[in-house]
Specification:
The chain is mainly alpha-helical and about 110 residues long. It is built from 5 helices and no strands.
């Protein structure tokens, strides 16, 4: 079982990360986001852009699918990255726990 302090630390980090990303989501759209918005009107357009522009197609395809489900607003466009950012925190936590074990720092335990 995880200690209460570990749970509170993990929850605090997720809340802080979400808050930072939420603040950024309220700002005006940036150049690279505008570029993504222009090239992800449909899945076909996203894949075509990736083939011509030498970009990996997964992100642009996911953005095109996301835009098909949610409205095309600045906040909605940034929410996909917000979701993946939050999921990556969980992955980093689990990876750190697998490498370092419970309750000890990996670097100090060697």
């Amino acid at each position: 079982m995880m200690k209460r302090s570990q749970i509170l630390t993990a929850v605090g980090l997720v809340v802080a990360a979400f808050a930072l990303r939420y603040v950024v989501a309220g700002r005006a759209i940036w150049f690279d986001e505008r570029f993504t918005l222009l090239n992800t009107g449909s899945v076909g357009a996203a894949v075509d852009y990736c083939v011509k522009g030498f970009h990996p197609p997964l992100y642009f395809t996911l953005v095109a699918l996301w835009r098909g489900v949610f409205p095309s607003t600045e906040f909605s466009l940034r929410c996909l990255s917000l979701v993946f950012g939050m999921l990556s925190l969980g992955g980093i936590f689990l990876a750190g726990r697998a490498v370092g074990g419970r309750g000890r720092l990996w670097l100090l335990s060697q």
